[in-house]
Specification:
11 helices; four-stranded mixed beta sheet; 10 strands; Butyryl-CoA Dehydrogenase, subunit A, domain 2
């Protein structure tokens, strides 16, 4: 059984993507870009990355499969091609990662016609940045335990509560928010909203300083935030259902309207090999140590296996369970990133204590930074432990863990 082949129209689009990316690859900025969009801190970084995403959207490589009236290209089956070619080209990532990966598909599936026309076009172009209000200080992984409360008062909702680990909230215009609208029911007492963030009365955004020294995450406090009922997504009490759509895309179980940029696992392995070849250990390069080479080779095998997992996911006859491959992919992607960084720290030895901006740090201090950042990825969208529980219980049919 083979993967889906491009139609003549898709083949032409693929060639267009390759040509456009070759001709429009941006020159690296004169300042450091973060390793991923979740670490974007400065206005300088935001402006540069927003300009890049806007240019790619205008070229037709973002939201290819979305209807034209919502800012898309209106061509089904084109987004997977654009995303693949963006990844292949190794161009910068898109800053509006929450908007593209979670908000857009949720609005498309559950929003009103007015909501789709209003919010999707500026989301795709990054004219408006989005963030996600799910986790709370008392219910990080227990999403259904959210206590941020939305009280209905006529055609308005008054929201009070506290969200945490909110990526890009410091730049966001809008948030997709899961709030409790009834204390009598756990799952049926949740309602989903689009809420304003930037400059909104009753909203306070506070940066959370990570161990990397960066502040891409935030906490967001709501104190009597008034939002109209027109900003509700789907029916009252259907928030859990809408949130499952968001998580479906956050965990990679469906194609988002934009992605593929940034550094690949293959790029990281290549950088790791280069590091080993230029790091001296006991009078020779670390690459000459068979134990080091064996560890790197095993990582390379895992990266290749992940690549083949992606190919399998594109063959319908080999998809035995809709959640198996996406959940495996999310779990393996984040853990491979962490293990590659850990291997690099082992190669660096004492030099791994040197951080960004230290002129003596190997490869600019990227590896200590990558290792510390990797823990955010193994927590986001459900921790690795939760991913394994879901795979065991919902895919393999094992008994629930206690």
């Amino acid at each position: 059984m083979s993967e889906r082949k491009d139609t003549p129209e898709q083949a032409e689009f693929r060639e267009y993507c390759r040509r456009w990316l070759a001709e429009n690859r941006p020159t690296p900025p004169p300042f450091r870009l973060p390793q991923s969009p979740v670490e974007v801190m400065t206005e300088q970084q935001r402006v540069w990355l927003c300009a890049w995403q806007k240019k790619v959207h205008q070229a037709g490589l973002i939201a290819c499969d979305y209807p034209r009236e919502y800012g898309g290209g209106g061509h089904q089956g084109f987004q997977r091609i654009a995303s693949a070619e963006l990844a292949r080209a190794g161009v910068p990532y898109f800053i509006n990662v929450i908007g593209l990966g979670m908000a857009a598909p949720t609005i498309l599936h559950h929003g009103t016609e007015e909501q789709k026309r209003r919010y999707l076009p500026p989301l795709f172009s990054s004219d408006e940045i989005w963030c996600q209000g799910f986790s709370e200080p008392g219910s990080g992984s227990d999403l259904a335990g959210a206590q941020t409360f939305a009280e209905r008062r006529g055609d308005q909702w008054v929201i009070n509560g506290h969200k945490v680990w909110t990526t890009l909230a410091h730049f966001a215009s809008w948030m997709i928010l899961l709030a409790r609208s009834s204390r009598e029911h756990k799952y049926d007492g949740l309602t989903y909203f689009i809420v304003p963030i930037a400059g909104a009365p009753g909203v306070t955004v506070r940066p959370l300083v990570k161990m990397t020294g960066e502040t891409g995450f935030n906490e967001v406090l709501f104190e009597d935030l008034h939002v109209p009922d027109s900003l509700r997504l789907d029916a009252v009490g259907k928030g859990w259902t809408v949130a499952m759509t968001t998580l479906l895309y956050e965990r990679g179980a469906a194609e988002s309207p934009g992605g593929g940029g940034g550094e690949s696992h293959e790029d990281r392995i290549a950088a790791l090999i280069e590091l080993a070849k230029h790091t001296r250990r006991d009078g020779r390069s670390a690459w000459e140590n068979p134990v080091t080479r064996d560890r790197i080779l095993k990582l390379l095998i895992r990266v290749e296996a992940l690549k083949q997992l992606g190919r399998r996911a594109r063959v319908e006859a080999l998809t035995d369970h809709p959640m198996r491959l996406p959940l495996q992919g999310k779990l393996l992607t984040t853990e491979i990133s962490q293990d590659v960084a850990a291997a690099a720290l082992e190669v660096e030895g004492m030099s791994s204590t040197l951080y960004l901006r230290d002129e003596n740090a190997p490869q600019g201090g990227r590896w200590p930074h990558a290792y510390m950042n990797s823990y955010g990825l193994t927590i986001a969208a459900g921790t690795s432990e939760i991913q394994r529980n879901i795979l065991g219980e919902r895919v393999l049919g094992m008994a629930k863990s206690k």
